[in-house]
Amino acid sequence: MKVHAIIVAAGSGTRAGSSMPKQFQMLAGKPVLRWSLEALNSHRAIDSICLVLPDGTAADDLTAGLQQQPILLATGGVTRSDSVLNGLRAIPGSSDQDIVMIHDAARPGLSHAVIDLLIDALSRKDAAAPALPVVDALKRNSSDGITAVDRTSLFRIQTPQAFRFASIFEALENGASDHVDDLAAIESIGCSIELVKGDEQLSKITYPEDFGRISRLMFDDRMEFRTGSGFDVHAFEPGDHVTLCGVSIPHGSGLAGHSDADVGWHALTDAIFGALALGDLGDHFPPSDQKWKNADSSVFLLHAVDLAKAQGWTIGNCDITLICEAPKVKPHRLAMRERTAELIGVDVDRVSLKATTTEGLGFTGRREGIAAQAVVLLEKEEKKGAQ
Q1: Which of 98, 103, 291, 315 fits a 20 to 30 Å CA distance from 239?
Q2: Is the CB of residue 33 less than 8 Å from the CB of residue 62?
Q3: By the 8 A CB rule, do 377 and 225 touch?
Q4: pLDDT per residue rounded down to tens, the chain (387 residues)
Q5: How far apart are CA 156 and CA 355, in angstroms?
Q6: Alpha-carbon gap, residue 336 to 76, rounded angstroms
Q7: What is the C-alpha to C-alpha distance for residues 227 and 5, in angstroms, rounded to an integer?
Q8: Contacts of 296 (CB under 8 A, 6+ apart)
């Protein structure tokens, strides 16, 4: 049995107050749908994700850096049900008993906890959805006046909604096209449903003011950051390669240093120590200690990351600049970013790496060595909305 996810992002979203559909508008630096895409992509149980987009929409920027699960694409239909069916048809090799989760792109506050509850519920029922009880008093306003509505057993239904593949496909393909949601289609064919605990963060963006409200729900309790900067220099010495950000690059000289002289990772390590106010590389790994002779700089960087984790911090993103006339960095830049991302435990799109020269000026301009500077952002772990 596999678990698939469909993110429905083909709507016009006109009520959100922009010519751009709400799912593509920015929320805390990312398109709204990207938050759900990242939550699903990073969950261990999800085997594939299908993104249903308006016809002609480019997806490269939306899916950049997401590598854990395949990202499939489908084109939206005339109705929401048509769009979901197109997403179901785009999932290759699916079996009747596979689980499929169908999620609205305009609900960015998806957490791993909700995904886990839905998967567990499908071991008992044919379908499941997150839900929150109605807590406000309800009134019906009609020509007969205002009357109270009993809110007992009333719930606000959210997404993602989870189903067996065969059941939801049958319900949507053979049923009406105007269901209020996918759960209603399943109800119409008599399938059993379990409601699991929902989350206020899963509220839907509909109107312009919802962007601020959802942002507060998702982020207000986690807006604690620290920044750090690092700088390092190593001179050239006789050798046949240099190691930069974990990648060995053939060169007519090596870099002098007590360790492997990885100037990029040394700068990043110092940036993390700086954000933690824990001194610098020399304080933690003194060059006078022979234990660190020729050491791989990954040891230093991992130590800094572990110290951050021990204090409840995780890497948000980092930006490394290598300053040299040679060797050429650009052919190796992606490999450096991937190796750094792997080591510090973040997606590659959170690692920036640039190279520049000093136009022939100074020691780097005279090709006497390489310098590097790095900036890092730390975020508090166990934050509200963490996956």
Answers
A1: 291
A2: yes
A3: yes
A4: 899 999 999 987 666 556 788 999 998 888 999 999 999 999 999 999 999 999 989 888 888 888 777 899 999 999 989 999 999 999 988 899 999 999 999 999 999 999 999 999 999 999 999 999 999 999 999 998 999 999 999 999 999 999 999 999 999 988 766 677 899 999 888 899 999 999 999 999 999 999 988 988 887 655 578 999 999 999 999 999 999 999 999 999 999 988 899 999 999 999 999 999 999 998 998 888 888 888 899 999 999 999 999 888 989 999 999 999 999 999 999 999 999 999 999 999 999 999 999 999 999 999 999 999 999 999 874 444 444
A5: 51
A6: 38
A7: 35
A8: 259, 260
Which amino acid is residue 255, in one-letter code?
L
Query: DSSP character for 336?
Result: H
Per the CB < 8 A criterion, the answer to whether 227 and 122 are in contact is no
Question: How many Cα atoms sit within 13 Å of 208 on the Cβ side?
Answer: 4
Distance CA 132, CA 153 (A): 10
Count of CB atoms situated within 10 Å of the CB of 133: 13
> Any idea what the Cα angle at residue 241 is, between residues 240 and 247, rounded to 5°?
160
Domains along the sequence of the chain with CATH: 3-219 (3.90.550.10), 225-380 (3.30.1330.50)
Which H or E element spans position 141?
A: strand 138-142
Radius of gyration of the chain (CA): 26
Q: Is the pTM of this model over 0.70?
A: no
The position carrying tokens 């520049």 is 356
Could you tell me the two tokens for 31?
A: 């398109």
Which amino acid is residue 150, in one-letter code? D
Q: Which residues pair with 319 in a beta bridge?
A: 352, 375
